[in-house]
Design brief:
Length: 412
């Protein structure tokens, strides 16, 4: 019975935000498809305030997938972007994106959305100012060389359109690029999002007194805030959930008694969950990875405290906490049903476009557009690849003892 209640809670929360996730990922996919990666790399090369500002703007317009943000930032760093620009891109990609704001607004209200966006900007400022206290120029260059030589495996490759804007709006090819980016993001994130709802659903069954035991309540306000902005990120690290997936759990934590600053610190911490820390180590080496994780933890806590102070002064900190029944709203015949149905149609249309024009990469499983993908013919079968890395891996396997496994193009 308890398991059924947990799953029911998760389903209710997913229903609340389904339309926002679909529309958010669709906007992100359009940006990824219609803003070429080469232009981004040129804009972020070098150091100084301007590249960091451009990295923030471009990150805010990109995917909210934490893993994709880390991979793109590594690519930018390899090609000459400063550590500050690469980290700013990561922070903006995971804290200033459209879909995250929508989900936050629905589950926690507009004040948390505003705090998240302002906090993301403050986070980037603190990171830029404090970077040299954690990372020397010598260590930064060592990390760049490590990133250039690291065997990082498969990375998410965005499908890009080079058509003029007016032609993109009516071009099946351009919308196919959007659809493949949309599907690629969902493929990378569905486990994260699903786990976030799952954890939130079962966390909703935990009595508030358990949450209250995690946080100081009777201590002086400054000490309580400090404890909350430290414990919040630690919960995020332990949960393994990142990106949009940690917002449902943030709503439960807010309902359970964590402070405003603690919720913000928890949301900011999606870039220091354990799997991503392991990726940093692989990309940049242990020393640089340890330093930037320390830098992120400190700046996340400072940004959360700063926003809490600003909002307290402006009397914008929410004082009423939702009940569990408010967090896990019942499903009814209202505007959310209409929005969710529209979201379902958009989702189905974009996925159908990838099925009609797409093929599955036999190495990584990513769906690519057959008309634009790299291809290779072997034994009368044509294989399609998301990038040169996967094609090279396929050729290596093909020269081995076992023949490559044929994967039929999806939608055929």
């Amino acid at each position: 019975m308890l398991v059924a209640h947990g799953i029911e809670n998760a389903a209710r929360m997913a229903y609340e935000v389904w339309w926002a996730l679909v529309f958010g990922f669709a906007v992100s996919a359009i940006v990824q498809a219609w803003v070429p990666r080469e232009r981004i790399e040129r804009a972020l090369s070098g150091s100084g305030f301007a590249p960091v500002a451009r990295a923030t703007a471009l990150g805010a317009a990109s995917s909210s997938c934490s893993y994709a943000a880390v991979a793109i930032a590594k690519s930018l760093f390899q090609k000459g972007a400063s550590a500050a620009s690469a980290l700013a891109f990561q922070f903006a990609s995971t804290n200033l994106v459209w879909e995250l704001g929508l989900v936050l607004w629905i589950l926690l209200g507009w004040r948390f959305t505003l705090a998240e966006f302002l906090g993301g900007a403050v986070l980037i400022v603190f990171m830029t100012v404090l970077l040299r206290l954690f990372v020397s120029r010598k260590l930064e260059e060592e990390a760049r060389e490590h990133a250039r030589s690291a065997a990082t495996g498969h990375e998410h490759h965005a499908a890009e359109s080079t058509l003029p804007l007016r032609r993109r709006l009516v071009s099946a090819e351009a919308w196919s690029d959007v659809a493949h980016n949309f599907r690629g993001d969902w493929r990378m994130l569905w486990k994260e999002i699903g786990l976030g709802f799952f954890l939130a659903g079962f966390a909703g069954l935990i009595p508030n007194r358990v949450f209250e035991a995690l946080f100081l309540h009777d201590a002086p306000a400054p000490l309580r805030l400090l404890e909350n902005v430290v414990v919040g990120p630690l919960i995020a690290v332990a949960s393994f959930v990142c990106s949009v997936g940690n917002i449902p759990l943030a709503a439960v934590l807010w309902s359970g008694g964590i402070s405003f600053a603690g919720v913000l610190a928890f949301i900011f911490a999606d870039l220091i969950v354990l799997p991503i820390i392991a990726i940093y180590r692989k990309y940049y080496g242990s020393r640089f990875a340890l330093r930037i994780v320390g830098l992120m933890f400190v700046t996340m806590a400072l940004a959360a405290l700063a926003i809490d102070g600003i909002f307290s002064g402006a009397q914008l900190v929410p004082h009423s906490r939702p009940k569990r029944s408010d967090v896990f709203m019942p499903i009814g015949l209202d505007y959310k049903l209409v929005l969710n149905l529209v979201g379902l149609l958009v989702f189905a249309a974009l996925i159908a476009l990838t099925l009609r024009r797409g093929a599955a990469d036999p190495v990584c499983g990513m769906t690519v557009d057959r008309s634009k993908a790299l291809s290779l013919e072997r034994d009368g079968v044509t294989y399609y690849f998301c990038g040169p890395g996967c094609r090279e891996q396929f050729e290596v396997r093909a020269r081995g003892l076992e023949p490559p496994r044929a994967v039929r193009p999806s939608g055929t």
